[in-house]
Amino acid sequence: MTGTEALVLREDADGVATLTLNRPDKLNALTPALFVELRAQIDALAAQASSVGCVVLTGAGRAFCAGNDLAAIAAREQAPTPHYQAETIDALESLPQPVIAKVRGYCFTGGLELALGCDLVVAAESAVFGDTHGKWGLVPVWGMSVRLPERVGRATAKDLMFTGRRVDGVEALRIGLADRCVPDGGLDAAVAGLAAEIVGNSWGTSRIDKQLLAASARMERREALLHERSAPFGLPDDMAERMAAR
Questions:
Q1: 3-class DSSP state of 177
Q2: How far apart are CA 228 and CA 213, in angstroms?
Q3: Average pLDDT of the segment spanning 196-217
Q4: What pTM does this model have?
Q5: What b/e string do you get for 206-241 counting C-beta neighbours within 10 Å, with b at 16 or more?
Q6: What was the pLDDT predicted at 73?
Q7: 8-199, which class in CATH?
Q8: Which of 38, 103, 171, 246, CA to CA, is 20 to 30 A from 20?
Q9: Which of 170, 181, 65, 172 minimizes the C-alpha distance to 123?
Q10: Radius of gyration of the chain, Cα coordinates, nearest whole angstrom
Q11: What pLDDT sits at residue 246?
Q12: pLDDT score, position 70
């Protein structure tokens, strides 16, 4: 890979936008420059809800993402603002479209934080997940202490964070870290099929569902029930068309 190649690739097909972390020779380790490109892609997608109904995030080559690039940390490479990486993951999580993490190979630490910012995680059986902050004497600042227990529960999150142990795709599915686990050779087809199911339904419904779920997570249960009844985010633009075509 030359220095002129994009660090994040985008490919669109049939309403699905696929973002690919593109440092395969470095197992897609994260640098400030990569985050700048990722943020630009995310910001563009946020304004394209009418033309993109689903987003897939994956990595080039044999890994999803091996985590933060330690060489970049040692070289004191800086992102544009102090919390740029964390805010980029926030922006990924807040995209109006459903986002699928397609995970093969390593998904460590910063890479795991990216996956946790997605709505759904589909893993190959041989995928390897882990939080390696403790190995390097680092602490999470991009959301791990919030998003990991939301997915797997506090006790399991403590286990993974304190020990740094690695789990494969099968174990990730068992503990709730992954939503689906498929044989390695079937990962591409499984994610393509899932994305096709999503874009086959109302994109407006998916967008509103995401908003409702995000809002309810911040509310007491009774308040969330009443909030949903008020249809706070309106109705999908294609409701009448879909009802008429039934």
A1: coil
A2: 10
A3: 98
A4: 0.96
A5: bbbbbebeeeeeeeeeeebeebeeeeebeebeeeee
A6: 85
A7: alpha beta
A8: 171
A9: 181
A10: 18
A11: 80
A12: 86
pLDDT level of residue 8 (50, 70, 90 thresholds): very high
- Helix extents (H) in the chain: 32-46, 70-74, 84-93, 110-116, 133-136, 144-152, 154-163, 169-175, 187-200, 203-216, 221-229, 239-244
Query: What does the block give as tokens for 234?
Result: 């309106």
Closest to 112 in 3D by CA, of 87, 136, 132: 132
Is the model's pLDDT at 177 over the cut of 70?
A: yes
Q: Which two tokens stand for residue 13?
A: 């097909």
* Residue scoring higher pLDDT (5 or 166): 166
Q: Which of 11, 65, 56 is nearest to 34 (CA)?
A: 65
Place of tokens 């680092």: 138
DSSP 81: S
Q: Give the residue among 123, 118, 28 at the shortest CA–CA distance from 66.
A: 28
Identity at 220, one-letter amino acid code: E
Going by pLDDT thresholds of 50, 70 and 90, the confidence category of residue 42 is very high
Question: Which amino acid is it at 199?
Answer: V
Nearest to 102 by CA among 66, 145, 55, 137: 55
